[in-house]
Amino acid sequence: MSNKEDFLQSCLILDTETNSDDYKIAEIIESGFVIRENDDWTIFQELHKPVDRPIPPKVESICYITNKMVADKPSFLDSKEVFQEVINGYSGGYLVAHNHFYDMRVLERHGIDTTNHKWICTWRMAKKLFNGVESITETNLPYLRFALELDIPIEMLCHRAGNDSYITAKLLETLVSYMEEMNLIDKDQPYGPQIADWAASPIIYERMPFGKHKNELMTSIPHSYWQWAMKNTDWFNDEADNFDPDLAASIHKALGID
């Protein structure tokens, strides 16, 4: 077995669909994951009825999960032990998601323990690999599916937990192949630790990614702007949800701060 295939088999790739984009109040309305079997991915997904609030129309219009569909389903809380057992089965492996911060926080809120696992975020991998690549203008999952021409049946719709887990898995395969082509991986060594460490290291922006100085060279932005940002934003507060470690590291480099 190749080191790449060994790594893929060590990954549990998961996704949650929720009734809010605020993880502090979001309830899971569908959970899903894929596992590697016979050089492909097997999909599992399950609907859940929310307890505290119904699914709003906006969410129904995005994921096509309606209140009628989940009316007779158990809540995630009532079946969370099964999901926890699946996660525990990957002890020593990796949990993978696209924008893992959200799924991790939602699962924690529902009593799922992932503290003994290492996460890998494909959204972060894409941001690093395509930083400065003009032909890739977005890093959300539906966009990357088509921009990278992933081998996914067209009838497999996005924003369903099992489907998005599968799309994330195919994206992971592609991103790892890019890393191999760019010599970012030692093919003779286990892939998992290399990918996890690389993905966790800061993304250094050459240009400001948003705001008043968007697309300006980081080194050209006035110091007074960074002083304002330190007083008025959470970009530098590592305890805040809006903390951006990549932006903080990029600013430090632009300012010549170690």
Question: Care to describe what's here?
Answer:
It is a single chain. With 258 residues, the protein is an alpha/beta fold. 42% of the residues lie in helices and 13% in strands. The protein has a five-stranded mixed β-sheet with strand order 3-2-1-4-5. α6 runs parallel beside α8. The N and C termini lie far apart (42 Å). The relative contact order is 0.13.
The gist of it:
This protein is an alpha/beta fold. It is built from eleven helices and five strands; from the N terminus they run H-E-E-E-H-H-H-E-H-E-H-H-H-H-H-H. The termini are far apart.
Unreliable stretches = none
With strands numbered from the N-terminus, the spatial order across the biggest sheet is 3-2-1-4-5
Secondary-structure class: alpha/beta
Number of strands: 5
